[in-house]
Design a protein that fits this description.
The chain is an alpha/beta fold. It is 36% helix and 15% strand.
């Protein structure tokens, strides 16, 4: 009697953060780190406005799919993203950029490369603020509700998150979002608890990140509003090699879209003509 041996089941491949956004052969390669929501879809207007032949890649948050667990702090996130990026690119050929929260991660990635003696081609902070520490719980909950409203079009006033811990906050927001008629169609079949868990963790990580000094040059792209008065001073105090500002106008939440995204692409193309 022959015996049939069932082949061992291969474990599912771990969730990758590295994604190719635009193929190209020009240098440098732009590596865009996700904002607080975890997705890199918000870079589409910037990427599409860059010169032909520009290579763009993205780093999306782990934990958006069941194959990965979210990171718990920005240094660990930056180290993991660098590991994936450097499997494909030389550090000196990379412009590390990130919108809002993503700028903090890109900054930490650039700093770590500099420590290794491998300076990236550039570091770009897109509307990124230096985080404040000791933010009251109520303020962090309000920020989470505002982000759910902005990113997922769920009215903040209907969330009722006061007095909830992070797990309860995520569960409540997911329940409301799944019933919300304004939730974009792209999220109708999504696991909203998973998305909101990543959002809440990234928000907490930003507020706990103690921005270290970086001795390389940094480019800061600024919206017109809101722009806290001390933003430029705060970055200059951490970047002795210089912070170069590029004002593109508009609201912070609109910085990556439409005409503002086109202005950012033109700024990048002028800084690194290839």
């Amino acid at each position: 009697m022959s015996r049939h041996r069932t082949p061992p089941t291969r474990p599912a491949a771990p969730e990758a953060s590295y994604v190719r956004l635009l193929p190209g052969s020009r240098t440098p390669t732009y590596a865009f780190v996700h904002p607080v929501g975890g997705s890199v879809s918000g870079y589409v207007d910037v990427v599409s406005a860059l010169p032909a032949g520009t290579e763009c890649v993205g780093m999306r948050a782990r934990g958006l799919s069941p194959r990965g667990e979210p990171h718990r702090d920005i240094p660990a996130m930056a180290a993991a993203y660098l590991g994936e990026l450097l499997a494909h690119h030389e550090p000196e050929h990379l412009v590390l950029a990130g919108y809002s929260f993503g700028g903090l991660v890109a900054f930490e990635m650039a700093r770590r490369l500099r420590e290794r003696g491998r300076t990236p081609a550039g570091a770009v902070l897109l509307g990124t603020y230096v985080p404040r520490h000791g933010v009251p719980r109520a303020e962090r909950v309000a920020a989470f509700a505002r982000l759910v409203s902005v990113i997922y079009r769920v009215p903040a006033e209907g969330l009722r998150l006061d007095g909830l811990d992070d797990t309860e906050m995520v569960d409540r927001a997911a329940e409301v979002a799944e019933r919300c008629p304004t939730l974009p169609a792209a999220y109708r079949q999504a696991d909203m608890r998973r998305l909101f868990r990543v959002l809440a963790l990234n928000l907490r990580m930003a507020q706990e990140y103690d921005v270290p000094p970086y001795d390389g040059p940094v480019h800061l792209v600024r919206p017109e509003r809101p722009d806290p008065q001390d933003t430029l001073h705060a970055w200059r105090s951490r970047c002795p090699a210089g912070v170069f500002t590029h004002d593109v106008g508009g609201e912070h939440n609109e910085l990556m879209t439409g005409d503002h995204g086109v202005r950012i692409a033109r700024t990048l193309a002028a800084l690194w003509p290839g």
